[in-house]
Design a protein that fits this description.
- The protein is built from 17 helices and 24 strands.
- By secondary structure, the protein is an alpha/beta fold.
- The strands form 5 sheets. Strands 2-1-10-9-11-12-13-14 form an 8-stranded mixed sheet, sandwiched between helices.
Length: about 550
């Protein structure tokens, strides 16, 4: 592109970003007194959570920001409380580049600890609440945490953490019962005045899901610009002052990203400590929620509720249901939208590459199997094993570029990089309308009798059977064909389908070599905290 066209494109892009952010309420609405504060915060703090809460506090100070089982907090209150926590953490020796681990469920303590860490320029390490004790000890030591904020229920799990690492209780079952200093103690005992901007920006360390091995720490810096936020807000119509029920765990990149988006648009976040399908829908109705942030298995559990339990659910204002974390099981999007309206926005990405594509309700009505289209600020390439782009419509390895791709694993190593595009680890194809489809994991391809099979295609078909809740397919050794398929199937009603019925169904809809050799029926599939199926456990 010549310099004139390049400059014109840059101006057009900036204008588009401003329009999108203004429409969502991220910019605008600042009075004469607040504008200089917000401008200074953006210039000095960049696009970090610390900046987001400082701007929100001057813009939306008296509006409710957080709702949890302890009550309500306004934007201004959370800003001051996280200031006090930052002063307290600084007293524990935490500063720029130091590790601050968080082992908390969805409540105010998680949000305030994260904000305090960013205000200090610390590396905030988000720990999975389903980790075992040894895993926690290994991760905390590997990531160099100086302190860990944990809910009381996790104290025993952290008994193996070295004594020199500070401990603070994030949520006590009953005040004063944990035996540790609590976040509330630290907030009450420290100055809540403004802190100087740290000498370097912090970052988050988000752990990979560990579905195929040991979880790794993925370093994610603050984005250098606004394109990722603009890309989300262009596709997902969030707006200032909305109410969002946060069912997805905040420690996971999906829940975390949506909490930052919510803060930026001035939303009220309703936090649920433990997911309960009926209670989630009760919260949606109780707070007249505009949006619900979840992972696919949560919607599946809601739809499985009996008629007596669910008959009162209205979800009358629920215009946005954002999903990510795992593939949509066959028929889930259609079943949900037929009942609660066309409101599903499905996000495809990963801890490492951040955002790849977003499927809107229109996309999912067209084909519920699609991952949608790459949003503004994100580019997707499909390449063969030699790194050359594949023809349109053909399957290739998925590589993604945007300003939020991670900096590498904390223990060393990175994803494969092609000219700034990172491998997602998946393979997929584009249809004639530019919609992306995920065909499977590039390391899960099964070669059976010389034919290539991606489990995702078979899983999606089986899961679409009217007697099936969900399924998972893996490759197993086979003397005749080298590898064969084994399907694990969860039925809606026990014994409503047998092994031969599953095989016949697959053969009637796919090539015969894609039919599973083995079919094993289970009451449920093993999953991690974000709903991803743990195939390593099945194998």
């Amino acid at each position: 592109m010549n310099p004139v066209k390049s400059a014109a494109q840059a101006v057009a892009n900036k204008a588009f970003e401003i329009r999108t952010l203004h429409k969502a309420g991220v910019v605008g609405g600042l009075g004469p007194a607040a504008l200089p504060v917000a401008a200074s915060a953006l210039i000095r703090g960049g696009t970090t959570p610390a900046t987001a809460i400082r701007v929100a506090a001057v813009k939306n100070g008296d509006r409710v920001y957080l709702e949890d089982e302890r009550g309500s907090l306004t934007f201004a209150e959370v800003h001051r409380r996280s200031n006090a926590l930052a002063h307290a953490f600084a007293g524990l020796g935490i500063g720029p580049g130091d590790g601050l681990a968080v082992m908390c469920r969805n409540h105010r303590g998680f949000v305030e600890t994260n904000l305090a860490g960013w205000k200090l320029g610390a590396n905030v390490i988000l720990l999975n609440t389903m980790f075992s004790g040894p895993q926690l000890s290994d991760v905390i030591e590997r990531e160099g945490a100086k302190a860990v904020v944990l809910d009381q229920e996790f104290e025993e799990l952290l008994s193996g953490v070295p004594g020199g690492i500070g401990r603070v209780c994030g949520f006590e079952d009953e005040p004063g019962t944990s035996g540790l200093p609590s976040l509330e103690d630290l907030i009450a005992g420290n100055d809540d005045g403004e802190l100087p901007w740290p000498s370097e920006k912090g970052r988050n360390v988000i752990l990979t899901s560990g579905t195929t091995g040991t979880p790794k720490g993925a370093q994610r810096p603050a984005p250098s610009g606004l394109s990722v936020m603009v890309g989300m807000l262009d596709r997902i119509p969030h707006f200032s002052g909305e109410t969002i029920v946060m069912a997805a765990p905040l420690f996971h990149s999906w829940g975390y990203l949506n909490s930052i988006i919510g803060t930026s648009v001035g939303a009220r976040l309703v936090l649920q400590r433990r997911f309960n399908p009926a209670r989630t829908m009760e919260l949606v109705d109780e707070y007249d929620a505009d949006a619900l942030v979840a992972v696919p298995v949560m919607l599946q559990r809601i739809l499985e509720l009996d008629a007596e339990t669910s008959k009162h659910f209205k979800a009358s204002k629920l215009g946005i249901v954002t999903l990510s974390g795992s593939a949509l099981p066959g028929g889930l999007a259609t079943a949900w939208m037929d009942r609660y309206g066309d409101n599903i926005y499905n996000f495809y990405g990963s801890t490492e590459v951040a955002m790849g594509s977003i499927a809107t309700p229109e996309d999912l009505r067209h084909d519920p199997a699609t991952a949608g289209r790459p949003p503004y600020g994100t580019s997707v390439r499909l390449v063969d094993e030699f790194g050359d782009e594949v023809p349109h419509g053909e399957t290739g390895r998925i590589f993604i570029r945007n300003e939020m791709t991670f900096d590498g694993y904390t223990g060393g190593g990175n994803k494969e990089n092609l000219d700034g595009y990172l491998s997602s680890g998946d393979v997929g194809h584009f249809d004639e309308d530019g919609r992306l489809y995920i065909d499977g994991r590039d390391d899960e391809m099964i070669i059976s009798g010389g034919e290539n099979v991606y489990p995702a295609e078979v899983e999606d078909l089986i899961s679409g059977h009217d007697q099936v809740v969900e399924s998972a397919v893996i490759g197993v050794d086979d003397e005749k064909f080298g590898q064969a398929l084994r399907a694990y199937v969860v039925l809606k009603t026990p014994d409503s389908l047998d092994e031969d019925g599953v095989r016949k169904y697959v053969k009637a809809n796919l090539a015969s070599y894609k039919a599973p050799r083995d079919v094993i029926f289970l009451p449920e599939l093993p999953r991690n905290a974000t709903g991803k199926i743990l195939k390593k456990d099945l194998a």
